[in-house]
Amino acid sequence: MMTTHADLPVAVLGAGPVGLAAAAHLVQRGLAPLVLEAGPAIGANLAQYAHVRLFSPWQYNVDDRARAMLESQGWIMPAADALPTAGELINQYLAPLAAHPALAASLRLRHRVSAVTRAGSDKVTTRGRAETPFLIRAETPDGPRDFLASAVIDATGTWSQPNPLGANGIPAAGETALAARIAYGMPDVLGSQRARYADKRVLVVGAGHSAAGTLLALAQLAEEHPATRLVWATRSDRLARVFGGGDADGLPARGALGRRLQALRDSGRLEMRQSFPIHALEEDGGRIAVRDTAGRRIDGIDEIVCATGARPDLSVARELRLRHDHWLESTDALAPLIDPNEHSCGTVRPHGHRELAHPEPGYYAVGAKSYGRAPNFLLATGYEQVRSVVAALAGDLAAADEVRLDLPETGVCNTRVALQQPARPCCTVKAADAACC
Fold it and tell me: Which residues lie across from 144 on neighbouring strands?
């Protein structure tokens, strides 16, 4: 008998917060999920920074549908205003969710998706395409395995694809050769990686919240190990986004992070190198010399932390008909809402399945991957995305189109970044009003 779409599950790529939320919504709608996770456990990306305390409280980190499923099994929601670490988010929320009887059987760990296509068709084939199942190839401990699916929700994120140090979008000259002395993301400098950074001259590159958190952790390390020295390099001299809106920030912990970073910079406890777009690294007397595009140098570096953001891996869906924004690598419909060249309010206008759709029907990238190279993604955005997408897959377009998104503002609206004008305090109008952002 021929397999039809109705007989097939919806493939969910990634068992992080957004992927597991998608699975919960699929179950609610009577659709079978198949969750393929590359790592040995759920939340593999979060586990890489398990030590980091998030600046968004529990109320923004738990999906409503997932919460209802968990509470039906006796789960108790942590205090809504408490700030979990990434590790606590895994242990107290994602692990119980993945173990829920309605989801556990659908989860496949150590299944790294290497390709998504249509069964029996390549990218060129048009006839019967929408009726043809998706074929997902995963690399498993037992070798490659193919799965058929009626639709694909790609929630693989971007954390495993960090941006390089090079200001040109490619690795700086010498970056690959010196990779053993470069950490990407947010290393645990106060815990498991303490010996690597204590009493060293450490360069942190980046102007986002990951860079801020790492710098503050290194400053604490320097109090305990006074020979530790900090250097902070940014590509531009506009730091309003990372310093944030202070008391005007809708997430108090995020505002406090910016205030603490600004105080650290002003204290003289770190060497600040603004407008320093990195071009090359070279070993010099056992240390690293860093050179920018103008030939200026930062010498005597022992270790580098690259916190320059991340980008999506688009290669797995190469045989699908996708339409991305040329520079952000989000969908072209979503790009104007999130473009960091235009605004950085931390809020975006509500969006759902229509803004996330591609010419390939049934394929959606959600979560951080949906933002492409744009920063400032919050989990609450991903949860609303998957609610809308799953409703659309279930044929409930009324619910799918009724998108609701109410996110905390950063307190800074950078609508003038492209004009190199100062950021202004953000208005109190919700992000649905384009006059704010």
Answer: 139
pLDDT in tens, 155-165: 999 999 999 99
341: Cβ–Cβ under 8 A, 6 or more apart, which residues?
417, 418
DSSP assignment of 401-429, as one string? Answer: H---------SEE-TTGGGTPPPEEPPSS
Residue 410 neighbours by CB under 8 Å, 6+ apart: 241, 244, 245, 249, 250, 251, 254, 344, 345, 346, 347, 376, 426
Task: Write the DSSP assignment of 116-159 as a string of letters.
Answer: EEETTB-TT--TTGGGSPEEEEEEETTEEEEEEESEEEE---ST
For tokens 């998957």, the residue is 386
Which residues does residue 116 pair with via DSSP β-bridges, in sequence order? 136
Say how far apart CA 431 and CA 321 lie, in whole Å: 31
Give the pTM.
0.89
pLDDT per position as a tens digit, 108-117: 999 999 999 9
Question: Mapping DSSP to helix (H, G, I), strand (E, B) and coil, where does residue 243 land?
Answer: helix
Residues 94 and 111: beta-carbon distance below 8 Å: no
Q: Which two tokens stand for residue 346?
A: 């931390």
Question: What does the alpha-carbon distance between residue 130 and residue 109 come to, in Å, rounded to a whole number?
Answer: 29
**Neighbouring-strand partners of residue 233:** 205, 273
Percent of the chain topping pLDDT 90: 77
- H-assigned helices in 340-378: 353-356
pLDDT-derived band at 261 (thresholds 50, 70, 90) equals: confident
